[in-house]
Amino acid sequence: MSHIISNEELVSFQKDLISRKESAVNERAITKNGILASSYDWHAVSETTPVFSIDLDTGDVANQKQSGRCWMFAALNTMRHDMAKQLGLKKFELSQSYTFFWDKFEKANFFYENVLRTADQPADSREVAWLMATPQQDGGQWDMLCALIEKYGVVPQTAMPETYNSSKSNEINTVLNRKLRQDAVALRQMVADKTDDKTIDEKRTSMLSDVYRMLSYSFGQPPVKFDFEYRDKDNNFHRDSDLTPKEFFSKYVGWNLNDYVSIINAPTADKPYDKTYTVDMLGNVVGGRSVKHLNVTMEDFKKLAIAQLQAGESVWFGCDVGQSSDRQKGIMDLNIYAKSELFDTDLSMTKAQRLDYGESMMTHAMVITGVDLVNNKPTKWKVENSWGPKVGEKGYFVMSDTWMDEYCYQIVVNKQFLPDKLKQAQEQEPTILKPWDPMGALA
């Protein structure tokens, strides 16, 4: 039934506002300072001191600058932590520009694949509209980076440094997405005209050649071979010549990427715990590793993260970083802003409700490098961000345990830390979720 707001109701609303003792004070505070500053609770700062019972030394933070590569930075950071420890490196980064190049190239091909797959649908179908809304973007998932590394390897940042467009990706995204939408028009028309598969494939190859050229102009050509030179913590010089990117990954990172699996906590009715899920039309490398999540309780989620930290290894994780967080101080805490009290209205929602109704999803990936345990229970977590050293404690954040409960959605752990029950669950064939499911959100 419809409801038309009456003048009588407006008068009652105005009377209710005027009758509240705090209304004038709140109006002055909020109009002058804004909602966040007016609702800020300094007690949350004193309760999130950056001291932890388990605290891994992971060195200086990286800086993704004006790009959406947090998932890539976080994943490469977990690898460089281990590599730096093994080789005695002080300041070292793996090239995020190298994986960025290949991610955008492969995403273009992945987009073409989905355009052809849905070419029989009208342009205003939900699937086609979803594809065209963002043909490609900077974000991604752990499994997507694994697919890139398995195909292309990695290189040190010295072999493929940052460029204007890798650090500030808006311009290349704008022109590349226009190119991909234009290509979608041509591919869909070819299907409508019943063009043979060979001709369509030739056209697609020509489109990919254009994309490769655009990316090479923007990021530089990715190296085929390079020399790895470094000094260790004792100032000893090392050189390893004529390495391919895959040789470098195998020799210096050496991880079996199949050992690392995605664990999620999504307490929605459509995703029973101890089951696996994938997301339709989510990925980058056609024929490469697919995204696969194992959904577990938050209790199991935390136990796995703690087990990996206790073994001395950092943990990639995905969260909704903009919720209840102070970027400058580097605090993620449910009590940092008292918005419900400020407006005298209940703003609470459950984690499942926020996911189901679009209030929250994974927006950012970082690395857990520590945890504070009291009586074997976590109270707060140390987080390595990729926003440079000028925020937080030299780039490190503190996440309260209750904030993790509500706004953390994904971690990546080595399968060795899974109990037998979860190992068996992780081997299941995944349920396929819709492309717009919140568990398909890109960090």
| Biggest pleated sheet | 12 strands, mixed
Number of helices: 17
Q: What percent of residues adopt helix (DSSP H or I)? A: 40-55%
**Global mean pLDDT:** 97
Q: Name the structural class.
A: alpha+beta
Radius of gyration: 24 Å
Pick out its properties.
globular; alpha+beta; twelve-stranded mixed sheet; 16% strand; two-stranded antiparallel ribbon; 43% helix; 443 residues
Question: Overview of this structure, please?
Answer:
This protein is α+β, with helices and mostly antiparallel strands. It has helices at residues 7-19, 23-33, 35-39, 43-46, 70-87, 96-117, 126-133, 142-152, 164-167, 170-192, 197-219, 245-253, 298-310, 339-343, 351-356, 401-407, 420-426, and strands at residues 54-55, 226-231, 237-243, 260-264, 275-279, 293-295, 315-319, 325-326, 331-332, 364-374, 377-384, 396-400, 408-414, 431-433. The strands form 2 sheets. Strands 1, 4, 5, 6, 7, 8, 9, 10, 11, 12, 13 and 14 form a 12-stranded mixed sheet that branches. Helix 6 (96-117) packs parallel to helix 10 and helix 10 (170-192) runs antiparallel to helix 11 (197-219). The two termini are 40 Å apart.
Q: How do you describe this structure in short?
A:
This protein is an alpha+beta fold.
Structural topology:
Layout: H1 7-19, H2 23-33, H3 35-39, H4 43-46, E1 54-55, H5 70-87, H6 96-117, H7 126-133, H8 142-152, H9 164-167, H10 170-192, H11 197-219, E2 226-231, E3 237-243, H12 245-253, E4 260-264, E5 275-279, E6 293-295, H13 298-310, E7 315-319, E8 325-326, E9 331-332, H14 339-343, H15 351-356, E10 364-374, E11 377-384, E12 396-400, H16 401-407, E13 408-414, H17 420-426, E14 431-433
Helix pairs in contact: 6-8, 6-10, 6-11, 10-11
